Amino acid sequence: MKSSLYLLPGFVLAVLGATIQYVPPDQWDALNSTVGGHLHVAAPFSRACFPEAVTGVPGTFDESACTQVQQNYNDPASRSNSFGAYMNTQWETCEATSEQCLLNFLNTSDPSAFTPPQVCAQGGVPPYYIDIHGPGDVQAAFNFSKSTGVPLAIKNSGHDYSGRSSAPNSLGLWTHNLQQISYDSAFVPAGCPDSKSSSGVTFGAGVTLDALYDFADANNLTIPGGVAPTVAAAGGFLQGGGHGIFSNAFGLAADRALQFKVVTPSGTYLTATACQNSDLFFALRGGGGGTFGVVLEVTTRPLPQLAFPVVAVTLGDVNATQLSEWLRFLVANAIPYAETGWGGYIGYTTGAIFANPLINETQAASEMASLKDFLAILPNATFSLSTQPSFLTFFDTFAAILDAVPVGLPLSASSRLIPADNFRTPEKQAELATTLETVLQVSISPFIFAVAPYLFEDDGMTSVTPAWRGAIWHVPISAAWNFDTTKEEKKAILTGLSAAMDLLRAITPGSGAYQNEADVHEPNYTDSFWGANYDKLVEIKRMYDPDHLLDCWNCVDSQGPTSERFACYI
Protein backbone atom coordinates (compact mmCIF):
# COMPACT_ATOMS: atom_id res chain seq x y z
CA MET A 1 0.00 0.00 0.00
CA LYS A 2 1.32 3.38 -0.96
CA SER A 3 2.12 5.80 1.81
CA SER A 4 -0.21 8.35 0.20
CA LEU A 5 -3.10 6.40 1.70
CA TYR A 6 -2.44 7.93 5.10
CA LEU A 7 -3.96 11.18 6.22
CA LEU A 8 -1.25 11.67 8.82
CA PRO A 9 1.83 9.56 9.53
CA GLY A 10 0.42 6.59 11.38
CA PHE A 11 -2.96 8.35 11.65
CA VAL A 12 -3.31 9.95 15.06
CA LEU A 13 -6.92 9.92 16.14
CA ALA A 14 -8.10 13.13 17.76
CA VAL A 15 -11.46 14.46 18.85
CA LEU A 16 -11.71 18.10 19.88
CA GLY A 17 -7.96 18.19 20.30
CA ALA A 18 -7.73 15.17 22.61
CA THR A 19 -5.60 12.38 21.20
CA ILE A 20 -7.26 9.00 21.64
CA GLN A 21 -5.17 6.46 19.80
CA TYR A 22 -2.07 6.17 17.65
CA VAL A 23 -2.24 3.56 14.92
CA PRO A 24 1.17 2.71 13.39
CA PRO A 25 1.41 2.61 9.59
CA ASP A 26 2.16 -1.10 9.51
CA GLN A 27 -1.23 -1.84 11.09
CA TRP A 28 -3.00 0.06 8.35
CA ASP A 29 -0.87 -1.78 5.80
CA ALA A 30 -1.89 -5.07 7.36
CA LEU A 31 -5.57 -4.14 7.36
CA ASN A 32 -5.47 -3.10 3.72
CA SER A 33 -3.76 -6.35 2.81
CA THR A 34 -6.32 -8.38 4.75
CA VAL A 35 -9.25 -6.72 2.97
CA GLY A 36 -7.67 -7.08 -0.46
CA GLY A 37 -7.03 -3.39 -1.04
CA HIS A 38 -10.56 -2.32 -0.10
CA LEU A 39 -9.31 0.22 2.44
CA HIS A 40 -9.62 3.81 1.21
CA VAL A 41 -9.22 7.36 2.45
CA ALA A 42 -12.40 9.43 2.53
CA ALA A 43 -12.60 13.07 1.54
CA PRO A 44 -15.64 15.22 2.35
CA PHE A 45 -17.98 15.48 -0.65
CA SER A 46 -17.13 19.13 -1.35
CA ARG A 47 -13.35 18.85 -0.92
CA ALA A 48 -12.57 19.72 -4.54
CA CYS A 49 -14.10 23.20 -4.16
CA PHE A 50 -11.81 24.31 -1.31
CA PRO A 51 -8.38 25.80 -2.12
CA GLU A 52 -7.45 25.40 1.55
CA ALA A 53 -7.93 22.40 3.80
CA VAL A 54 -6.94 21.26 7.26
CA THR A 55 -3.72 19.28 7.30
CA GLY A 56 -4.47 15.63 6.66
CA VAL A 57 -7.72 16.08 4.73
CA PRO A 58 -7.22 14.10 1.50
CA GLY A 59 -7.81 15.44 -1.98
CA THR A 60 -6.96 18.73 -3.64
CA PHE A 61 -8.68 21.77 -5.06
CA ASP A 62 -9.89 20.90 -8.57
CA GLU A 63 -12.02 23.39 -10.47
CA SER A 64 -13.47 20.82 -12.86
CA ALA A 65 -14.27 18.37 -10.09
CA CYS A 66 -15.76 21.23 -8.08
CA THR A 67 -18.16 22.03 -10.91
CA GLN A 68 -19.39 18.43 -10.78
CA VAL A 69 -19.85 18.69 -7.03
CA GLN A 70 -21.79 21.94 -7.36
CA GLN A 71 -24.06 20.48 -10.04
CA ASN A 72 -24.79 17.34 -8.01
CA TYR A 73 -24.75 18.82 -4.52
CA ASN A 74 -28.50 18.37 -3.97
CA ASP A 75 -28.78 15.13 -5.94
CA PRO A 76 -29.51 12.10 -3.72
CA ALA A 77 -28.12 9.56 -6.20
CA SER A 78 -24.77 11.35 -6.40
CA ARG A 79 -24.62 11.52 -2.61
CA SER A 80 -25.50 7.86 -2.09
CA ASN A 81 -22.68 6.90 -4.47
CA SER A 82 -20.06 8.86 -2.51
CA PHE A 83 -18.77 7.62 0.83
CA GLY A 84 -17.92 11.18 1.91
CA ALA A 85 -21.46 12.47 1.39
CA TYR A 86 -24.55 12.40 3.61
CA MET A 87 -28.09 13.36 2.69
CA ASN A 88 -28.26 15.74 5.66
CA THR A 89 -24.98 17.53 5.52
CA GLN A 90 -24.56 18.37 9.20
CA TRP A 91 -23.27 14.79 9.55
CA GLU A 92 -20.35 15.72 7.31
CA THR A 93 -19.38 18.32 9.89
CA CYS A 94 -18.34 18.49 13.52
CA GLU A 95 -21.09 20.74 14.81
CA ALA A 96 -19.47 21.15 18.23
CA THR A 97 -16.34 22.73 16.71
CA SER A 98 -17.84 24.14 13.48
CA GLU A 99 -15.31 22.15 11.43
CA GLN A 100 -16.88 21.47 8.07
CA CYS A 101 -16.56 21.32 4.30
CA LEU A 102 -19.95 22.51 3.04
CA LEU A 103 -21.33 24.58 0.20
CA ASN A 104 -24.26 26.97 0.22
CA PHE A 105 -27.09 24.59 -0.71
CA LEU A 106 -29.20 27.52 -1.95
CA ASN A 107 -26.46 28.57 -4.38
CA THR A 108 -23.71 25.98 -4.67
CA SER A 109 -21.54 28.39 -6.67
CA ASP A 110 -21.50 30.94 -3.86
CA PRO A 111 -17.75 31.48 -3.27
CA SER A 112 -18.24 32.69 0.30
CA ALA A 113 -18.74 29.07 1.35
CA PHE A 114 -15.46 27.68 0.03
CA THR A 115 -12.90 30.42 -0.60
CA PRO A 116 -10.43 31.59 2.09
CA PRO A 117 -10.77 32.12 4.95
CA GLN A 118 -13.05 29.06 4.63
CA VAL A 119 -11.10 25.83 5.12
CA CYS A 120 -12.21 22.28 4.35
CA ALA A 121 -12.14 20.05 7.45
CA GLN A 122 -12.81 16.33 7.80
CA GLY A 123 -15.66 16.96 10.25
CA GLY A 124 -17.72 13.85 10.99
CA VAL A 125 -16.68 11.95 7.86
CA PRO A 126 -14.69 8.83 8.81
CA PRO A 127 -11.19 9.44 7.42
CA TYR A 128 -10.82 5.80 6.35
CA TYR A 129 -13.35 3.29 5.12
CA ILE A 130 -13.52 -0.27 3.87
CA ASP A 131 -15.58 -0.86 0.75
CA ILE A 132 -17.28 -4.01 2.00
CA HIS A 133 -17.33 -6.89 -0.48
CA GLY A 134 -18.05 -9.77 1.86
CA PRO A 135 -17.96 -11.07 5.42
CA GLY A 136 -14.15 -11.25 5.50
CA ASP A 137 -13.90 -7.47 5.16
CA VAL A 138 -16.21 -6.95 8.13
CA GLN A 139 -14.42 -9.55 10.24
CA ALA A 140 -11.13 -7.79 9.55
CA ALA A 141 -12.64 -4.48 10.59
CA PHE A 142 -13.89 -5.89 13.90
CA ASN A 143 -10.47 -7.40 14.64
CA PHE A 144 -8.80 -4.10 13.77
CA SER A 145 -11.14 -2.10 15.99
CA LYS A 146 -10.65 -4.48 18.89
CA SER A 147 -6.86 -4.33 18.65
CA THR A 148 -6.45 -0.60 17.99
CA GLY A 149 -9.45 1.06 19.65
CA VAL A 150 -10.49 2.76 16.40
CA PRO A 151 -14.29 3.11 16.49
CA LEU A 152 -16.44 1.81 13.63
CA ALA A 153 -19.26 3.49 11.72
CA ILE A 154 -21.53 1.50 9.40
CA LYS A 155 -22.62 3.55 6.38
CA ASN A 156 -24.86 2.63 3.51
CA SER A 157 -26.70 5.27 1.49
CA GLY A 158 -26.21 8.13 3.96
CA HIS A 159 -29.89 8.61 4.80
CA ASP A 160 -29.90 9.16 8.54
CA TYR A 161 -31.45 12.06 10.45
CA SER A 162 -29.49 11.17 13.59
CA GLY A 163 -26.02 10.81 12.06
CA ARG A 164 -25.59 7.19 13.17
CA SER A 165 -23.51 6.37 10.09
CA SER A 166 -20.92 9.08 10.69
CA ALA A 167 -18.31 9.45 13.39
CA PRO A 168 -15.14 11.54 13.57
CA ASN A 169 -11.87 9.63 13.52
CA SER A 170 -13.58 6.31 12.89
CA LEU A 171 -13.19 3.50 10.37
CA GLY A 172 -16.19 3.43 8.08
CA LEU A 173 -17.75 0.21 6.80
CA TRP A 174 -19.43 1.00 3.48
CA THR A 175 -22.00 -1.60 2.46
CA HIS A 176 -23.21 0.40 -0.55
CA ASN A 177 -21.70 -1.91 -3.19
CA LEU A 178 -23.41 -5.11 -2.03
CA GLN A 179 -25.84 -5.03 -4.94
CA GLN A 180 -26.97 -8.62 -5.61
CA ILE A 181 -30.69 -9.45 -5.96
CA SER A 182 -32.37 -12.84 -6.53
CA TYR A 183 -35.81 -14.42 -6.29
CA ASP A 184 -36.84 -17.82 -4.97
CA SER A 185 -40.50 -18.80 -5.31
CA ALA A 186 -40.08 -21.45 -2.60
CA PHE A 187 -37.65 -19.86 -0.16
CA VAL A 188 -37.14 -21.67 3.15
CA PRO A 189 -35.52 -19.58 5.91
CA ALA A 190 -32.42 -21.24 7.34
CA GLY A 191 -33.19 -23.76 10.07
CA CYS A 192 -36.90 -23.83 9.29
CA PRO A 193 -38.91 -26.81 8.02
CA ASP A 194 -39.98 -26.95 4.39
CA SER A 195 -43.51 -26.13 5.53
CA LYS A 196 -42.27 -22.57 6.19
CA SER A 197 -41.45 -21.98 2.51
CA SER A 198 -42.73 -18.86 0.79
CA SER A 199 -41.68 -16.49 -1.95
CA GLY A 200 -38.50 -14.68 -1.04
CA VAL A 201 -36.47 -11.88 -2.61
CA THR A 202 -32.88 -11.79 -1.38
CA PHE A 203 -30.89 -8.61 -1.78
CA GLY A 204 -27.56 -7.18 -0.73
CA ALA A 205 -27.31 -4.45 1.87
CA GLY A 206 -26.60 -1.76 -0.72
CA VAL A 207 -29.64 -2.37 -2.94
CA THR A 208 -31.78 0.75 -3.05
CA LEU A 209 -35.55 0.88 -2.96
CA ASP A 210 -35.86 1.92 -6.60
CA ALA A 211 -33.69 -1.01 -7.72
CA LEU A 212 -35.77 -3.34 -5.59
CA TYR A 213 -39.01 -2.01 -7.08
CA ASP A 214 -37.63 -2.47 -10.60
CA PHE A 215 -36.62 -6.05 -9.82
CA ALA A 216 -39.97 -6.87 -8.25
CA ASP A 217 -41.90 -5.47 -11.19
CA ALA A 218 -39.78 -7.45 -13.67
CA ASN A 219 -40.67 -10.62 -11.76
CA ASN A 220 -44.38 -9.82 -11.38
CA LEU A 221 -43.96 -9.16 -7.67
CA THR A 222 -44.71 -6.37 -5.21
CA ILE A 223 -42.26 -5.34 -2.50
CA PRO A 224 -43.83 -2.65 -0.32
CA GLY A 225 -41.50 0.12 0.77
CA GLY A 226 -40.89 3.80 1.22
CA VAL A 227 -40.75 6.76 -1.11
CA ALA A 228 -37.09 7.86 -1.19
CA PRO A 229 -35.59 5.90 -4.12
CA THR A 230 -31.96 6.03 -2.95
CA VAL A 231 -32.62 4.60 0.52
CA ALA A 232 -30.93 1.21 0.86
CA ALA A 233 -33.68 -1.26 1.72
CA ALA A 234 -31.67 -3.57 4.00
CA GLY A 235 -29.99 -0.94 6.14
CA GLY A 236 -31.35 1.25 8.90
CA PHE A 237 -34.60 1.61 6.95
CA LEU A 238 -35.66 -2.00 7.46
CA GLN A 239 -33.72 -2.60 10.67
CA GLY A 240 -35.44 0.40 12.27
CA GLY A 241 -38.91 -0.53 11.02
CA GLY A 242 -39.36 0.86 7.52
CA HIS A 243 -42.75 2.38 6.68
CA GLY A 244 -44.55 2.97 3.40
CA ILE A 245 -47.96 3.62 1.92
CA PHE A 246 -48.84 -0.12 2.21
CA SER A 247 -47.74 -0.48 5.85
CA ASN A 248 -51.30 -0.37 7.17
CA ALA A 249 -52.25 -3.35 5.03
CA PHE A 250 -49.01 -5.33 4.80
CA GLY A 251 -46.88 -4.21 7.74
CA LEU A 252 -43.57 -2.46 8.14
CA ALA A 253 -40.52 -3.57 6.18
CA ALA A 254 -39.30 -5.26 9.37
CA ASP A 255 -42.49 -7.34 9.46
CA ARG A 256 -41.75 -8.80 6.04
CA ALA A 257 -38.11 -9.77 6.65
CA LEU A 258 -37.56 -13.54 6.53
CA GLN A 259 -33.80 -13.83 6.96
CA PHE A 260 -30.66 -11.83 7.67
CA LYS A 261 -27.04 -12.65 6.94
CA VAL A 262 -24.97 -10.67 9.39
CA VAL A 263 -21.43 -10.45 10.74
CA THR A 264 -21.56 -9.98 14.50
CA PRO A 265 -18.87 -8.11 16.44
CA SER A 266 -17.36 -11.44 17.54
CA GLY A 267 -16.52 -11.98 13.87
CA THR A 268 -19.08 -14.73 13.37
CA TYR A 269 -20.99 -14.79 10.10
CA LEU A 270 -24.52 -15.78 11.08
CA THR A 271 -27.83 -16.42 9.41
CA ALA A 272 -30.70 -15.18 11.56
CA THR A 273 -34.27 -16.36 11.05
CA ALA A 274 -37.32 -17.19 13.13
CA CYS A 275 -35.91 -20.73 13.41
CA GLN A 276 -32.23 -20.10 14.20
CA ASN A 277 -30.51 -17.25 15.99
CA SER A 278 -34.06 -16.06 16.58
CA ASP A 279 -32.96 -13.57 19.23
CA LEU A 280 -30.80 -11.75 16.68
CA PHE A 281 -33.61 -12.04 14.13
CA PHE A 282 -35.90 -10.27 16.60
CA ALA A 283 -33.32 -7.55 17.26
CA LEU A 284 -32.66 -6.86 13.58
CA ARG A 285 -36.39 -6.51 12.88
CA GLY A 286 -36.71 -3.11 14.49
CA GLY A 287 -33.86 -2.75 16.96
CA GLY A 288 -32.08 -0.28 14.69
CA GLY A 289 -29.14 -0.39 12.31
CA GLY A 290 -25.49 -0.07 13.20
CA THR A 291 -25.52 -1.77 16.59
CA PHE A 292 -26.07 -5.57 16.57
CA GLY A 293 -23.82 -6.40 13.63
CA VAL A 294 -23.20 -5.61 9.98
CA VAL A 295 -26.05 -6.92 7.84
CA LEU A 296 -24.82 -7.99 4.42
CA GLU A 297 -27.99 -9.52 3.00
CA VAL A 298 -31.74 -9.67 3.69
CA THR A 299 -34.51 -11.86 2.36
CA THR A 300 -37.99 -10.34 2.36
CA ARG A 301 -41.42 -11.79 1.63
CA PRO A 302 -42.82 -10.23 -1.55
CA LEU A 303 -46.43 -10.13 -2.66
CA PRO A 304 -47.75 -10.99 -6.10
CA GLN A 305 -47.94 -8.02 -8.41
CA LEU A 306 -51.19 -6.23 -7.72
CA ALA A 307 -53.25 -3.37 -9.05
CA PHE A 308 -54.74 -0.94 -6.57
CA PRO A 309 -56.70 2.31 -6.41
CA VAL A 310 -54.94 5.59 -5.72
CA VAL A 311 -56.55 8.89 -4.78
CA ALA A 312 -54.54 12.04 -5.47
CA VAL A 313 -55.60 15.41 -4.06
CA THR A 314 -54.26 18.90 -4.60
CA LEU A 315 -55.55 21.80 -2.52
CA GLY A 316 -54.53 24.75 -4.67
CA ASP A 317 -54.62 28.14 -2.99
CA VAL A 318 -56.18 27.85 0.44
CA ASN A 319 -56.58 30.23 3.35
CA ALA A 320 -56.06 29.52 7.03
CA THR A 321 -59.70 28.67 7.64
CA GLN A 322 -59.74 26.18 4.77
CA LEU A 323 -56.52 24.57 6.00
CA SER A 324 -58.08 24.17 9.42
CA GLU A 325 -61.18 22.53 7.89
CA TRP A 326 -58.95 20.24 5.80
CA LEU A 327 -57.05 19.06 8.83
CA ARG A 328 -60.23 18.48 10.85
CA PHE A 329 -61.74 16.46 8.02
CA LEU A 330 -58.65 14.25 7.88
CA VAL A 331 -58.60 13.73 11.64
CA ALA A 332 -62.30 12.80 11.68
CA ASN A 333 -61.83 10.24 8.90
CA ALA A 334 -58.46 8.77 9.91
CA ILE A 335 -59.81 5.69 11.69
CA PRO A 336 -62.40 4.81 9.01
CA TYR A 337 -59.67 5.04 6.36
CA ALA A 338 -57.28 2.91 8.38
CA GLU A 339 -59.88 0.25 9.15
CA THR A 340 -60.40 -0.59 5.48
CA GLY A 341 -56.71 -0.55 4.45
CA TRP A 342 -55.93 2.95 3.29
CA GLY A 343 -52.47 4.40 3.74
CA GLY A 344 -51.20 7.73 2.59
CA TYR A 345 -49.04 10.82 2.64
CA ILE A 346 -50.74 14.07 3.56
CA GLY A 347 -49.32 17.47 2.75
CA TYR A 348 -50.85 19.83 5.28
CA THR A 349 -50.78 22.76 2.85
CA THR A 350 -50.64 20.96 -0.50
CA GLY A 351 -52.83 17.84 -0.74
CA ALA A 352 -52.54 14.10 -0.27
CA ILE A 353 -52.02 10.72 -1.87
CA PHE A 354 -53.91 7.70 -0.56
CA ALA A 355 -53.67 4.08 -1.70
CA ASN A 356 -55.47 0.90 -0.68
CA PRO A 357 -54.21 -2.49 -1.92
CA LEU A 358 -57.15 -4.36 -0.34
CA ILE A 359 -60.03 -2.98 -2.42
CA ASN A 360 -60.92 -2.18 -6.03
CA GLU A 361 -61.63 1.16 -7.69
CA THR A 362 -65.38 0.90 -7.28
CA GLN A 363 -65.03 0.39 -3.55
CA ALA A 364 -62.48 3.18 -3.39
CA ALA A 365 -64.87 5.60 -5.09
CA SER A 366 -67.51 4.81 -2.50
CA GLU A 367 -65.16 5.11 0.49
CA MET A 368 -63.62 8.35 -0.73
CA ALA A 369 -66.85 10.03 -1.81
CA SER A 370 -66.89 12.15 1.34
CA LEU A 371 -63.37 13.39 0.57
CA LYS A 372 -64.38 14.31 -2.96
CA ASP A 373 -67.43 16.16 -1.61
CA PHE A 374 -65.33 18.00 0.95
CA LEU A 375 -62.89 19.21 -1.70
CA ALA A 376 -65.76 20.71 -3.66
CA ILE A 377 -65.84 23.57 -1.14
CA LEU A 378 -62.27 24.53 -2.02
CA PRO A 379 -62.21 26.61 -5.22
CA ASN A 380 -58.94 25.29 -6.65
CA ALA A 381 -58.79 21.76 -5.27
CA THR A 382 -58.56 18.67 -7.47
CA PHE A 383 -59.51 15.04 -6.82
CA SER A 384 -58.50 12.09 -8.99
CA LEU A 385 -59.05 8.35 -8.61
CA SER A 386 -57.07 5.88 -10.68
CA THR A 387 -56.05 2.25 -10.63
CA GLN A 388 -52.30 1.77 -10.70
CA PRO A 389 -51.31 -1.53 -12.37
CA SER A 390 -48.28 -2.09 -10.11
CA PHE A 391 -46.36 -0.59 -7.23
CA LEU A 392 -43.58 0.47 -9.62
CA THR A 393 -46.06 2.31 -11.82
CA PHE A 394 -47.45 4.06 -8.76
CA PHE A 395 -43.95 4.91 -7.55
CA ASP A 396 -42.91 6.32 -10.93
CA THR A 397 -46.16 8.19 -11.51
CA PHE A 398 -46.10 10.04 -8.21
CA ALA A 399 -42.34 10.12 -7.54
CA ALA A 400 -42.04 13.90 -7.77
CA ILE A 401 -44.74 14.32 -5.12
CA LEU A 402 -43.79 11.41 -2.87
CA ASP A 403 -40.07 12.08 -2.56
CA ALA A 404 -40.35 15.69 -1.45
CA VAL A 405 -37.76 15.76 1.34
CA PRO A 406 -34.77 17.91 0.32
CA VAL A 407 -31.19 16.62 0.49
CA GLY A 408 -27.80 18.30 0.40
CA LEU A 409 -28.50 20.59 3.34
CA PRO A 410 -28.38 20.42 7.12
CA LEU A 411 -31.82 19.17 8.15
CA SER A 412 -33.10 17.72 11.40
CA ALA A 413 -36.38 15.99 12.26
CA SER A 414 -38.63 15.25 15.19
CA SER A 415 -41.65 12.96 15.18
CA ARG A 416 -44.49 11.31 17.07
CA LEU A 417 -46.73 8.30 16.57
CA ILE A 418 -50.38 9.29 17.07
CA PRO A 419 -52.45 6.53 18.69
CA ALA A 420 -55.96 5.63 17.57
CA ASP A 421 -57.27 6.85 20.92
CA ASN A 422 -56.54 10.44 19.87
CA PHE A 423 -59.06 10.08 17.02
CA ARG A 424 -61.92 8.33 18.84
CA THR A 425 -64.13 11.16 20.11
CA PRO A 426 -65.05 14.60 18.78
CA GLU A 427 -63.31 16.16 21.76
CA LYS A 428 -60.05 14.30 21.15
CA GLN A 429 -60.27 14.99 17.44
CA ALA A 430 -60.55 18.71 18.14
CA GLU A 431 -57.62 18.59 20.56
CA LEU A 432 -55.45 16.74 18.04
CA ALA A 433 -56.33 19.02 15.13
CA THR A 434 -55.69 22.17 17.18
CA THR A 435 -52.32 20.81 18.35
CA LEU A 436 -51.30 19.75 14.85
CA GLU A 437 -52.09 23.19 13.47
CA THR A 438 -49.51 24.66 15.82
CA VAL A 439 -46.90 21.92 15.43
CA LEU A 440 -46.99 21.65 11.64
CA GLN A 441 -46.45 25.39 11.20
CA VAL A 442 -42.94 24.91 12.59
CA SER A 443 -41.93 22.41 9.89
CA ILE A 444 -40.32 23.26 6.57
CA SER A 445 -42.04 20.13 5.19
CA PRO A 446 -45.41 19.87 6.97
CA PHE A 447 -46.47 16.28 6.28
CA ILE A 448 -48.60 13.68 7.99
CA PHE A 449 -47.81 10.05 7.23
CA ALA A 450 -50.77 7.66 7.42
CA VAL A 451 -48.39 4.71 7.43
CA ALA A 452 -48.85 2.96 10.77
CA PRO A 453 -49.46 -0.83 10.59
CA TYR A 454 -52.81 -0.43 12.32
CA LEU A 455 -54.68 -3.10 10.35
CA PHE A 456 -51.77 -5.51 9.96
CA GLU A 457 -51.40 -8.36 12.44
CA ASP A 458 -47.71 -8.86 13.23
CA ASP A 459 -46.07 -12.16 14.17
CA GLY A 460 -44.74 -10.97 17.52
CA MET A 461 -41.12 -11.22 16.39
CA THR A 462 -40.36 -7.59 15.69
CA SER A 463 -38.68 -5.22 18.13
CA VAL A 464 -40.10 -1.86 16.99
CA THR A 465 -41.97 0.04 19.65
CA PRO A 466 -45.41 -1.49 20.28
CA ALA A 467 -46.71 2.05 19.85
CA TRP A 468 -46.53 1.46 16.08
CA ARG A 469 -49.24 -1.19 16.34
CA GLY A 470 -51.86 1.04 17.92
CA ALA A 471 -51.04 4.18 15.96
CA ILE A 472 -52.90 5.70 13.02
CA TRP A 473 -50.51 8.46 11.98
CA HIS A 474 -46.79 9.15 12.12
CA VAL A 475 -46.19 12.90 12.24
CA PRO A 476 -42.69 14.21 11.45
CA ILE A 477 -41.58 17.82 11.44
CA SER A 478 -38.28 19.22 10.23
CA ALA A 479 -36.04 22.27 10.33
CA ALA A 480 -33.05 23.27 8.21
CA TRP A 481 -30.15 25.71 8.19
CA ASN A 482 -27.14 26.51 6.01
CA PHE A 483 -23.35 26.42 5.98
CA ASP A 484 -23.03 29.78 7.72
CA THR A 485 -25.46 29.12 10.59
CA THR A 486 -23.70 29.51 13.93
CA LYS A 487 -23.46 26.81 16.56
CA GLU A 488 -25.75 28.73 18.89
CA GLU A 489 -28.29 29.25 16.12
CA LYS A 490 -28.24 25.50 15.40
CA LYS A 491 -28.85 24.73 19.06
CA ALA A 492 -31.79 27.10 19.07
CA ILE A 493 -33.24 25.45 15.97
CA LEU A 494 -32.98 21.98 17.52
CA THR A 495 -34.46 23.21 20.78
CA GLY A 496 -37.36 24.85 18.96
CA LEU A 497 -38.05 21.69 16.97
CA SER A 498 -38.19 19.57 20.10
CA ALA A 499 -40.32 22.13 21.93
CA ALA A 500 -42.88 22.06 19.13
CA MET A 501 -43.04 18.27 19.26
CA ASP A 502 -43.57 18.46 23.03
CA LEU A 503 -47.10 19.63 22.25
CA LEU A 504 -47.86 16.32 20.55
CA ARG A 505 -45.98 14.35 23.18
CA ALA A 506 -48.19 15.92 25.83
CA ILE A 507 -51.44 14.66 24.29
CA THR A 508 -50.08 11.19 23.35
CA PRO A 509 -48.81 9.80 26.68
CA GLY A 510 -47.45 6.28 26.39
CA SER A 511 -46.87 6.53 22.65
CA GLY A 512 -43.47 6.82 20.97
CA ALA A 513 -41.53 7.98 17.94
CA TYR A 514 -40.14 6.40 14.80
CA GLN A 515 -36.43 6.06 15.48
CA ASN A 516 -35.39 6.67 11.87
CA GLU A 517 -37.15 10.03 11.73
CA ALA A 518 -36.88 11.08 15.34
CA ASP A 519 -35.64 14.04 17.30
CA VAL A 520 -31.86 13.89 17.72
CA HIS A 521 -32.56 14.74 21.36
CA GLU A 522 -35.64 12.55 21.76
CA PRO A 523 -36.73 12.55 25.42
CA ASN A 524 -36.48 9.11 27.05
CA TYR A 525 -35.53 7.66 23.69
CA THR A 526 -35.20 4.06 24.89
CA ASP A 527 -38.89 3.93 25.77
CA SER A 528 -39.93 6.10 22.84
CA PHE A 529 -38.18 3.96 20.21
CA TRP A 530 -38.67 0.47 21.67
CA GLY A 531 -41.01 0.56 24.65
CA ALA A 532 -41.33 -2.79 26.40
CA ASN A 533 -38.89 -4.38 23.94
CA TYR A 534 -35.91 -2.37 25.15
CA ASP A 535 -34.67 -4.54 28.01
CA LYS A 536 -34.69 -7.63 25.79
CA LEU A 537 -32.79 -5.73 23.11
CA VAL A 538 -30.12 -4.73 25.64
CA GLU A 539 -29.66 -8.39 26.60
CA ILE A 540 -29.24 -9.35 22.94
CA LYS A 541 -26.86 -6.46 22.31
CA ARG A 542 -24.60 -7.50 25.18
CA MET A 543 -24.68 -11.12 24.07
CA TYR A 544 -23.53 -10.39 20.51
CA ASP A 545 -21.37 -7.34 21.23
CA PRO A 546 -19.88 -7.83 24.71
CA ASP A 547 -16.92 -5.56 23.88
CA HIS A 548 -19.20 -2.81 22.59
CA LEU A 549 -17.41 -2.49 19.27
CA LEU A 550 -20.53 -0.95 17.74
CA ASP A 551 -22.21 2.15 19.05
CA CYS A 552 -24.29 4.91 17.59
CA TRP A 553 -26.33 7.89 18.75
CA ASN A 554 -29.46 6.87 20.69
CA CYS A 555 -29.02 3.23 19.72
CA VAL A 556 -29.70 0.22 21.93
CA ASP A 557 -27.34 0.20 24.93
CA SER A 558 -25.51 3.27 23.63
CA GLN A 559 -22.65 4.53 25.79
CA GLY A 560 -24.33 7.91 25.74
CA PRO A 561 -23.50 11.50 24.88
CA THR A 562 -20.40 11.60 27.10
CA SER A 563 -18.66 9.10 24.80
CA GLU A 564 -15.94 10.77 22.73
CA ARG A 565 -17.48 9.13 19.68
CA PHE A 566 -20.33 11.63 20.01
CA ALA A 567 -18.19 14.70 20.69
CA CYS A 568 -19.42 16.44 17.53
CA TYR A 569 -23.09 16.41 18.55
CA ILE A 570 -24.60 19.60 19.95
From TrEMBL:
<dbReference type="GO" id="GO:0071949">
    <property type="term" value="F:FAD binding"/>
</dbReference>
<dbReference type="InterPro" id="IPR006094">
    <property type="entry name" value="Oxid_FAD_bind_N"/>
</dbReference>
<dbReference type="Pfam" id="PF01565">
    <property type="entry name" value="FAD_binding_4"/>
</dbReference>
<comment type="similarity">
    <text>Belongs to the oxygen-dependent FAD-linked oxidoreductase family.</text>
</comment>
<feature type="domain" description="FAD-binding PCMH-type">
    <location>
        <begin position="122"/>
        <end position="305"/>
    </location>
</feature>
<dbReference type="InterPro" id="IPR016169">
    <property type="entry name" value="FAD-bd_PCMH_sub2"/>
</dbReference>
<dbReference type="GO" id="GO:0016491">
    <property type="term" value="F:oxidoreductase activity"/>
</dbReference>
<protein>
    <submittedName>
        <fullName>FAD-binding domain-containing protein</fullName>
    </submittedName>
</protein>
<dbReference type="InterPro" id="IPR016166">
    <property type="entry name" value="FAD-bd_PCMH"/>
</dbReference>
<feature type="signal peptide">
    <location>
        <begin position="1"/>
        <end position="17"/>
    </location>
</feature>
<keyword id="KW-0560">Oxidoreductase</keyword>
<dbReference type="InterPro" id="IPR012951">
    <property type="entry name" value="BBE"/>
</dbReference>
<keyword id="KW-0732">Signal</keyword>
<dbReference type="InterPro" id="IPR036318">
    <property type="entry name" value="FAD-bd_PCMH-like_sf"/>
</dbReference>
<dbReference type="Pfam" id="PF08031">
    <property type="entry name" value="BBE"/>
</dbReference>
<dbReference type="InterPro" id="IPR050432">
    <property type="entry name" value="FAD-linked_Oxidoreductases_BP"/>
</dbReference>
